[in-house]
Amino acid sequence: MEVSRKAILDKTHYGLNIYAYVLRQYYPGETVLSLSGRDCKPAKNPFNADKPTLLVKVVDGCATHTDSEEAIAQGNVFDFAALHFSLEGQTLLDKLNEELHLRIGKQQGFYAQAESQPAVALPEIVKPAAPVFSYFNKPVTNVTPSRQASLVEVYNLIKGNEFASCTSSLRNIPDPKEARKYKAQNFDYVTFSGTFSKRNDANLQRHSGLLTIDFDHIQDIPTLKTALLNDHYFETELLFVSPSGDGLKWVIPIDLTQAKHQDYFKAVANYVSHTYHLEIDQSGKDISRACFLPHDSEIFINPKYL
Questions:
Q1: Rounded to whole angstroms, how far apart are CA atoms 127 and 130?
Q2: Which tops the pLDDT comparison, 58 or 72?
Q3: Are 48 and 69 in contact (CB under 8 A)?
Q4: Stretch 244-264: mean pLDDT, rounded?
Q5: How far apart are CA 8 and CA 81, in angstroms?
Q6: Of 104, 191, 95, 194, whose CA–CA distance to 143 is shortest?
């Protein structure tokens, strides 16, 4: 494998671990990056007299930075690494591969690993615990959860091949009535908004702090997906294509100390209607709303959980 920017980003959580590695060289023993939402909290900038002016966030799959005092130019993780190593181009990429022990382009296997230097753990980035909710085995008439699942676990299930077969079969059923029947019988589902002893609002055990917004019959899914990921008011926790293939499931965080679940739903529905000129599925107002789990290799999860 070539030592490329993409290969490095894939092995360093979008480049966040590169920022952490560089900062740890200046501030050993400290927590150098702490995620807050989709961005990192202000961090010390070694190129601005150690002031907490460095702002790091992930944009389009690559970690980027700005300095609130403009002590350094706005740029991405490779620009920041260049400031530290005083290198650029392929020489910089090779240096990152070596320093962070990424082993890109190295022979894999037991013997190759045995002869190499032991890998040094990358600096830890403080990350929040993923929300937890109830998981139900098919069919949808089963209202007793089999277990609890986390947002990261569901992300991995949807991204993997667990539900690829049933998703493909559903999308090849031309009759809407038959498709609904197939979906109800053949898809596992979750209640993103909380854990339940049984699936109804009265049996809520604990709210997860998540709200699911359903977009159905969307003409241009890629454009809407990009717009939602860049929404200025709501942070995206999880975003994936619906089982039918013509909609999106948008999972966002809500603060129940500020308003009730149903009030949040009404507010978000009004916001979506005004901002995107779209109507959303009203079933999202139910805390115990079932969300079927399809296959989507392009599913998005907030990088703070990775």
A1: 9
A2: 72
A3: yes
A4: 94
A5: 12
A6: 191
Determine which helix (DSSP H) or strand (DSSP E) holds 252, and give its type and residue range. Answer: strand 248-253
* C-beta atoms surrounding 144 within 10 Å: 12
pTM of the model: 0.63
Torsion over CA: 138, 140, 146, 151 (sign): positive
Q: What are the residue ranges of helices labelled H in the chain?
A: 5-11, 16-26, 77-85, 89-99, 110-115, 151-159, 164-171, 176-186, 221-229, 261-276
Region of 32 (left: φ > 0; alpha: ψ -120 to 50; beta: rest) is alpha
Residue 129: name the closest of 244, 53, 209 by CA.
209
**Nearby residues of 92 by Cβ (< 8 Å), 6 or more positions away:** 78, 81, 82, 85
Those residues whose C-beta lies under 8 Å from the C-beta of residue 13, and which sit 6 or more positions away, are 125, 303, 306
- 137, 146 Cβ separation under 8 angstroms: yes
List the structure tokens of 14: 């979008």
Q: Token pair for residue 278?
A: 């779209």
Q: How far is CA 186 from CA 154, 168, 242, 294, in A?
A: 17, 12, 14, 10
Residue 258, classed as helix, strand or coil, is coil
- First-residue to last-residue Cα distance in the chain: 23
pLDDT band at 296 (very low <50, low <70, confident <90, very high): very high
Instruction: Over range 76-103, report the average pLDDT.
Output: 93
pLDDT digits (tens, 9 = 90+) for 36-62: 656 788 999 999 999 999 999 988 889
Closest CA to 46 of 9, 14, 83: 83
